[in-house]
Amino acid sequence: MAAQRSRPKLKGLSFLLAIVATLTVAGWGAASPATVTVAVGADAVRLDPPDMTDNPSETVLRHIMDGLVEFDEQLQIRPALAERWEFQNGGKDVVFYLRKGVRFHDGTPFDAAAVKANFDRILAGGLRRTSLYEPYIQSVEAKDTYTVVFHLKFPFGAFLHHLAHGAGLIQSPSNIRRWGDKVGQHPVGTGPFKFVEWVPGDHITLEANKQYWKGAPKFDRLVFRVVPEDATRVFQLETGEADVITFLPPSEVPRLRANRDLDIRVADSLRVIYVGFNVLRKPFDDVRVRQAVNYAIDKELIVSQVLGGMASVSDSPMAPGVNGYCKTGGYPYDPERARQLLKEAGYPQGLEVSLWAPQGRYLKDYETAIAIQAMLQQVGIRVRLQTMEWATYLRNIFDVPKEQAQYQMYMLGWAPSTGDADWVMRPLLSSQSFPPGDNASYYGNPKVDQLIQEGMRTSDPDARARIYCEAQKQVVGDAPWAFLHVVKQVVGVRASLQGVKVLPIEIVLVKDASKK
Amino acid sequence: MTRYLVRRTGVLLVVLLGIVAVTFGLLRVAPGDPARLIAGPDAPPETVMALRHELGLDRPMAEQFVLFVGQVVRGDLGQSFQTGRPVLEEIGWRYVNTGILALTAVGLASLAGIAAGMLAARYPYSAVDSAIMSGALAGVSAPVFWLGLLLMWLFAVKLRWLPTSGAGSLRHLILPAITLGAALTATIARMTRSSLLEVIEEDYIRTARAYGVAERSILLRHALRNAFLPILTVIGLQLGYSLAGAVLTESVFAWPGMGRLIAGAIFTRDYPVVQAGLLVVAVTFAAINFAVDVLYAWLDPRIRYD
Q1: Prediction ipTM score
Q2: Burial of A333 by CB count in 10 Å (0-12 exposed, 13-18 middle, 19+ buried)?
Q3: Distance between the two ends of chain A, CA-based, in angstroms?
Q4: Could you point out which of A182, A361, A435, B44 has its C-alpha 20 to 30 Å from the C-alpha of A145?
Q5: Half-sphere exposure at residue A105, Cβ-oriented, CA atoms within 13 angstroms
Q6: According to the UniProt entry, where is the signal peptide (chain A) (predicted)?
Q7: CA B205 to CA B195: how far, in whole Å?
């Protein structure tokens, strides 16, 4: 009977062994060397440049399509499908001379008519990024086959930056006609990779465009794989299932740096984290109280202790990488000065305020808020800390009429996707942009408003630099925000893959990469 | 049986309408604006307002509800706010994926759980029994995240036998199925053990033993069949829960399934996807319960429905 009982167990065991053996023989499915896999945290949403607003879509699209101009790693504007350009008529007409002999992946020739078709579609409205172009482009004219002229409503200072934005990528006009409003699932451009398939929630596969005008890519296939869990992405990088992973959790950096197969990149971003004050309500209607908070926060300490060095202290509403940034000096840590200012403002006994902060949206956001709470306590400001889920948070900040705005202080981040000062100052700090716009501080200064208008309507780079510098200094003095820090982005790359570029606009480009 | 079926179907329809109404209401009451989330925090207000109009969110809530129910009745579940793809297309193959994962997990768990439970019942209060029951306790208590990452670290990172994540082959299925099935295995083992121990006390088992029937045969043929009803209920319920609740396993293993889809859609306030997703899950849940009831009647002819 004992023998009878053990037999089925043995069978089970050998079955298990057989499975394991088969799997082992079947091989660790190492991707062929000609495939590069990028593991991203979220899937793309739609692959239609002027109709997408999310980072994962833009990352994929920048491998399929080119724009007239493009950003390099320092966010300088470089020629792409346009070989050169001229500003005419006082900056109101911009003439682009296009690259010749380029074709879209579907065979359609790239020419002035194609550019016109793309922008006519945007200007016709109804797309998510129409508002990025419509306010200043009057019309687009195909002057001859390879010359296209943008007629502007006024000389717009950040025009080239807007063209370099992901929304300005050029797609095949015949493909747009073919797919209509489903074009976002079937992207066709002139870029180094052609779209092959998209399995939503799982992966997007591209293949090399051997006829690419800059020369064929150095590998055959590019796969963007959706892996939402941070720890899983890290494992994939370690096993080699992924060659590149984005949004690597900073806490893993020291451990992974010890692995010589990996190249852990900590790159600058344009994302500024700040605490906005509701300047319409007490106590933050008094500039001295706002300045006091700025002096009371030890930003160096937050960067080193809370963020583990994965950020840099900020002294302006914009990051140093933004076109138009200038040093303002900001507010050094000075709790004595803070106490003094509070006393002058009539709060010798201190005061009590509320601070809203998101949790898990930005690197250590809630932990940062806790640190701020402790620091403000030191100067006599008692902070009630409140957090809420992201969708609720945004609604409570942006979608309430100003009389009803309940917040006193709120923490937010901002990264201008055009890389230009205009896209910081105009939406966040102009009195034209009160909620439902993005100026949730309700900050308005006529001088700053005027500088924002001037900066927008000036195309001379030197003049713009002066204008925005003056505006930043004024804003920092008025302190509608507590300026905190600029976060860094962490990207993990297999050391065998070279030439990966990390743009400050939180885009990773592998199009020029090659595998050893 | 026919009358029973008709009555159950009627009740089911009412329940489903209730679910539709409740999810619709809850989503609308929950703060957070889909248009703002889709447009992104750096979108100008005109874009947000245009989107709100495009998505029909500026219409009165009652009108939105009537439109939605009308759509569902016509079999049209609308389009995802986020991707613009038809909701059925979004859900369809993810539903299949989750089904594969849940069925595999429940299948593995049933085999392992029943086997372990039987072994424990065969030698009650012995070392074998306590080992199995401690294992079961650990299985029930192990958090999915921890277990999933542990398995991944061992079998993918260290041993390199299996891929860390993704879908598409049998090898991709193994780790998530074990992770999802672990707690279930433990539940089934405990249920099998206690249910068997109860049955074993019955007279007919004693009689069979007295006739010299082999112990294994007693357990398998006589005891298990009669102890099976509560086990079946647990398995049926767990299959339903796995379908709905595989969210954590799916996100740890990047398994493109329903759970992840619905959870993501809740965060982005993608109303059509959440509504349709929950509806599909509810229908499945009801169908499983129904199947379990029918199986009950088949296994135990004493149970009557009319």
Answers
A1: 0.79
A2: middle
A3: 61
A4: A182
A5: 25
A6: 1-26
A7: 14
Count of CB atoms situated within 10 Å of the CB of A390: 16
CB contact, 8 Å: A27 with chain B?
A: no
Q: For chain B, what is the radius of gyration of the CA atoms?
A: 24
- Which 213-272 residues of chain B touch chain A by CB within 8 A? 214-216, 251-254, 256, 260-261, 267-269
Please answer yes or no on whether A241 and B163 come within 8 Å at the CB atom.
yes
Q: Taking a contact as any Cβ pair under 8 Å apart, which residues of chain B between 103 and 142 contact chain A?
A: none
| Cβ atoms of residues B33 and A399 within 8 Å | yes
E-assigned strand segments in chain B:
none
d(CA B270, CA B80): 6
Residue-level pLDDT, tens digit, chain B, 306 residues: 677 778 777 887 888 788 888 878 877 777 777 777 777 666 667 777 777 887 778 888 888 888 878 877 787 878 888 888 888 888 888 898 999 999 999 999 999 999 999 888 888 888 888 888 888 888 888 888 888 899 999 998 888 888 888 887 888 899 999 999 988 899 899 889 988 888 877 777 778 777 877 777 777 777 777 778 888 888 888 888 787 668 888 989 989 888 888 888 888 888 888 888 888 888 888 888 878 877 777 777 666 655
What burial class does residue A399 get, using C-beta atoms within 10 Å of its C-beta: 0-12 exposed, 13-18 middle, 19+ buried?
A: middle
Picking from B84, B149, B166, the nearest residue to A184 by CB comes out as: B84
Q: What are the start-end ranges of the H helices in A78-229?
A: 112-123, 130-133, 159-164, 173-179
Chain B residues touching residue A20 (CB < 8 angstroms):
161
Q: Which residues of B touch A202 (CB under 8 A)?
A: 166-168, 254, 256
Q: Which of A1, A45, A53 sits opposite B83 (nearest CB)?
A: A45
* DSSP bridge partners of A28: none
Query: Helix, strand or coil for residue A317?
Result: coil
**Residues 164-203, chain B, touching A (beta carbon < 8 A):** 164-168, 171, 174
* C-beta separation of A193 from A64 below 8 A: yes
